């Protein structure tokens, strides 16, 4: 059987990722698990204002508009400037009133704790929520001083659903409902089918993609579902150390391979100790170039995504710098699923793309 070479998109299921050792020490002492990160954020609202009274939530101008759209149902949204090309947010643009909530995001997992911790130490009567979805186990996440910290775990861990919330300040946590999401089980089915597909057994790709999409649709409707039993039970046994080490090694290898090609620009080339970036992020010259590269990579079975596009029609932060970056970034999957050889192949394709368009002189 010929294995299928395919990079990116959702995780497939792999037994080897579950370590046969003691449950992991990576998690805080007290936490709650929800099906999705969005439902964690909505549940914080319900926890603080069970009568449904609206609250103001300050979001970074570089953020996922799909999530922001859902948050709009519970919160009045305000935006502060936070760009992934800068080491810290522009705190002058963040002016919360007493009682407001602020979401600090470790964008691409490359940020440090200190600027937010210093900012928080000067605030009175606001609630800081940190979003560690891009690196749930960074030193910032583990030394957080925020009121609440959360992460959508399914972005970086091979599980069908799951998001965590904990309170570094030991506040009461929102509780998920006892219901699990049907979407989680559709996603699990899709993960199993994807593995079969990648192993070269002739099942249709549409079949697992269809299940994936349906599962995601169902998950995105959830407002307070708990994480699936599978996620809750498997989570403490995931080999998080190995997953993180391989992800970091792959991103380092990627960056080292493109360093002599001026036209292939990584958004960042270094990060802090005990942080692992979300993925390799490329910054293209313009939107057309980014979209062409993305299309070319799809034709090579490399599914690169955009974190995050700000739609022309629809919700946007209206920050021109954030919008410009959102038009030019491309996330290249570099996580632990991929071997060194896979990374060489991905880089070869990217260089070929630029060479063939004479964007690069070798
Ligand atoms: C940074 C960040 N936070 C939160 C969320 C919400 O997570 P979920 O998709 O699990 O609802 C997302 C989803 O894209 C995200 O990228």
Descriptive keywords:
single chain; 362 residues; alpha/beta; Aspartate Aminotransferase, domain 2; Aspartate Aminotransferase, domain 1; 2 domains; seven-stranded mixed beta sheet; 11 helices; binds pyridoxal-5'-phosphate
Bound molecules: pyridoxal-5'-phosphate
How far from one another are the termini?
38 Å
Tell me the number of structural domains.
Answer: 2
**Unreliable residue stretches:** none
Average predicted local confidence, pLDDT: 95
Q: Kindly report the CATH topology of the largest domain.
A: Aspartate Aminotransferase, domain 2
The helix-and-strand class reads alpha/beta
Question: What is this structure, in a nutshell?
Answer:
With 362 residues, the protein is of the alpha/beta class. It is built from 11 helices and 11 strands.
Polypeptide structure, described:
The chain is an alpha/beta fold and 362 residues long. It has two domains: 23-166, Type I PLP-dependent aspartate aminotransferase-like (Major domain) (Aspartate Aminotransferase, domain 2, 3-Layer(aba) Sandwich), CATH 3.40.640.10; 240-356, Aspartate Aminotransferase, domain 1. 35% of the residues lie in helices and 13% in strands. The chain contains eleven helices and eleven strands. The protein has helices at 37-48, 65-71, 114-121, 139-142, 182-198, 205-220, 229-234, 240-258, 287-299, 320-328, 340-356, and strands spanning 7-8, 32-34, 55-60, 75-80, 101-105, 127-131, 148-152, 163-166, 280-283, 302-303, 329-332. The strands form three sheets. A seven-stranded mixed β-sheet has the order 2-8-7-6-5-3-4, with helices on one face. Strands 1-10 form a two-stranded parallel ribbon. Strand 5, helix 3 (114-121) and strand 6 form a beta-alpha-beta unit. Helix 5 (182-198) runs antiparallel to helix 6 (205-220) and helix 8 runs parallel beside helix 11. The radius of gyration is 20 Å and the shape is globular. The mean pLDDT is 95. Bound molecules: pyridoxal-5'-phosphate (PLP). Pyridoxal-5'-phosphate binds at residues 36-38, 64, 67, 105, 131, 133, 152, 154, 163.
